[in-house]
Amino acid sequence: MSDHEDAPVTDAMPEQTRLHRRSTFDDDAERYDRTRPRYPAALFDALADAAGLQAGSRVLEVAPGTGQATTSLAERGWRVTAVELGAQMAALARRSAAGVPGAEVDVVVAPFEEWPLPAEPFDAVFCATAWHWLDPAVRGPKSAQALRPGGVLGVVRSHHVSGGTSAFFESADGCWREFGRRDDGGGTRFRLVPEDEVEPATAELERSGRFAEVVAHGFPVEVEYSTAEYLDLLSTYSQVAVLDPGARAGLLGCVGRVADEQFGGRITHRYFFELVLARTPSPT
């Protein structure tokens, strides 16, 4: 169910819209797996350091999607239980994990909100770029409940930030203005923000009263795309998937022309992966 935060997704989004949009990724799981950028190793190192993870540690991964992060967790020798909403996504996550020698990964198909927690607590709970699709009333409390005392929740948010071929995204803004109107009357835009203006997403967990300490770390990554590769990626974004077919084709065609005619068919996109780490209180 993972998704890069390619359009504003807030807790104020109507529940019906959230539930619909989060279900779109399973429709084209292979494309999603092929195109989405991987998370840097340093991000998992930070999780390991914060939670004191070592070989055999138990990690609950929430909404793993097709398993991009799952393999990184498994490669470190951690025992992973991954709870994924989409059956097609889960099948690809299993396939990815099977390629890791000695991996101990169990992929369960279920909404995290409804999945019964096992009796044995986890050393860490991890959710990569899907937290915004979970029920705001459930995600934090249930994650805390799943952890042992002193265990760590790691939440990754991905931001599209200035850098790379920023001029391309400015030029393509007209495409979004022309074709990004949804059936619900809302508009779809694609904006870059300066990296130093990304607000750490710590407030929710700080306010919850379930965590003793909350910190945020940032990991910038740049990825270069051909026009075809970028349009392939764009097709997996939820706000593109919910457009009617004509608008979707118009948007992709327009963005493709901008990339080819103004930028020689090569663009670089800068991502900023934010890792929020929240620790449950340790026994006194």
Task: Describe the structure concisely.
The protein has 12 helices and 7 strands. The chain is α/β, with parallel strands linked by helices. Strands 3-2-1-4-5-7-6 form a 7-stranded mixed sheet, with helices on both faces.
Structure description:
The protein is α/β, with parallel strands linked by helices and 284 residues long. The protein has a domain at 15-161 and 192-222 and 271-279: 3-Layer(aba) Sandwich (Rossmann fold). The chain has twelve helices and seven strands. A seven-stranded mixed sheet has the order 3-2-1-4-5-7-6, with helices on both faces. The radius of gyration is 19 Å and the shape is globular.
Biggest sheet details: 7 strands, mixed
The appropriate CATH architecture of the domain at 15-161 and 192-222 and 271-279 is: 3-Layer(aba) Sandwich
| Rg, alpha carbons | 19 Å
Helix share bin: 25-40%
Strand content: 15-25%
CATH class of the domain at 15-161 and 192-222 and 271-279: Alpha Beta
Task: Write the H/E string, N to C.
Answer: HHHEHEHEEHEHHHEHHHE
Number of helices: 12
Shape: globular
What is the terminal-to-terminal distance? 37 Å
Name the average pLDDT: 89
Low-confidence segments, given as residue ranges, are 1-10, 182-187
Going by CATH, what is the homologous superfamily of the domain at 15-161 and 192-222 and 271-279?
Answer: Vaccinia Virus protein VP39
CATH topology of the domain at 15-161 and 192-222 and 271-279: Rossmann fold
Structural category is alpha/beta
Number of strands: 7
For the largest sheet, list the strands in their spatial order: 3-2-1-4-5-7-6
